């Protein structure tokens, strides 16, 4: 073997492990996305069997997978068009179909056509929300989502099932409570396809030395939440759901208040000059 051939062989051997590591890094986000998809499918099977709290748990676990896969892909620079499209299909299963079937089998089944229409509306809005997100994928990212994210809406359905059980209620519900829960699920569906801005958790970054106290506080907060997860998760989720319409309404009032103040000032000035 000549010296040139030996040099080529050494370079090939050095590149081999690197390619293997690069391939493993590329596969890691897709494996996490696959786990989210399987958790969504597992939730569907559990809902059909009537194991609603376990079905809700599967959806909540899928939300963690959805938060991890994108962050890991960005951190390792392993983003790809395939991963982007696969993530959307996984989200539709875990946060569109699985929550819709959970709410239908949990409480909407006795309503007949009205029940499957409400559950179908949720799944349809999740699909439209994801399609709109994909269509705007090339636009610059912002700190706000347009409409509530399907991940959060699906997770909120699961947390609601937990919270209602924690309170001590179970289907069939009294009519007023049933109307409130059904209306809440319909509201989540409509918020997904709305244009109301919601803060994006992707904008939250904990980096550098200054980020360590915030990270410790976040871990302590997460432990506190998990110790009493049903009311804490529902309360935090409900606050986030309501924050969008409240902020949207306040922003719409600002121009009116400003114009009213200008008109009042102009009127006062005219009277003074006269």
Record keyword descriptors for this entry.
single chain, 80% helix, 8 helices, globular, two-stranded antiparallel ribbon, mainly alpha, Four Helix Bundle (Hemerythrin (Met), subunit A), 274 residues
Largest sheet: 2 strands, antiparallel
- State the name of the first-level CATH class: Mainly Alpha
Number of helical segments? 8
- Can you write the helix and strand succession as a string? HHHHEHHEHH
Question: What is the CATH homology-level superfamily?
Answer: CDP-alcohol phosphotransferase transmembrane (TM) domain
Radius of gyration, whole Å: 25 Å
Spatial ordering of strands, largest sheet: 1-2
Beta-strand content: under 5%
Shape estimate:
globular
Summarize the structure.
With 274 residues, the chain is mainly α.
Q: What would you say this structure looks like, in words?
A:
80% of the residues lie in helices and 2% in strands. By secondary structure, it is an all-alpha fold. It has a single domain, classed as CDP-alcohol phosphotransferase transmembrane (TM) domain (Four Helix Bundle (Hemerythrin (Met), subunit A), Up-down Bundle). The protein has a two-stranded antiparallel ribbon with strand order 1-2. It is globular, with a radius of gyration of 25 Å.
